[in-house]
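As a warm-up, study this chain.
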Amino acid sequence: MNKKLHFALIFPVLLLAVVLQSCSSAKIVSNKDSNYTKKLKKVYVIVTSAKNVERFDDRLLTALTDKIKLKGVFADGFARNPLSLETEEDVNRKINQYDPDALLLIKQTQITYINGGAGGGVFEITLIDKETKKNVWKSTVNLQGAWYDDGTIDTMVTKLLTQMEQDQLI
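Now compare it with the structure written out below.
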């Protein structure tokens, strides 16, 4: 009887902990060059984040390129390992071969560990126009959620694309 009572008290607490860990949120702020009026048609994306979270990079890149294509924007790119031995010349060659209208750089600038795993981070996102080579849009995304959860990535991508629509980039 005592074990049943103990389980009845602990089970709801454990269930709440699991539910709260699977929740994710993203806050975004952006700044767009008021003279930039182009709509993206073809973009090359480079994602760079902290060491030991490369699988997150790959999944973020895939989700973003898949969802931006649904908005009518061709997209390709790669997740850049911070320990990569690729030179800037190698990276420029990849970009030039794709011949995009713009380059979208996503760089993780902060990571937060929760319960021993990645559970939050800040990303700086920069859009660079091909013709002028100037930054035409910047944003910061503060993402909270378990890195292993696809819902966390979906939250970030949805928030990012919504902001890009509001800023009339797509």
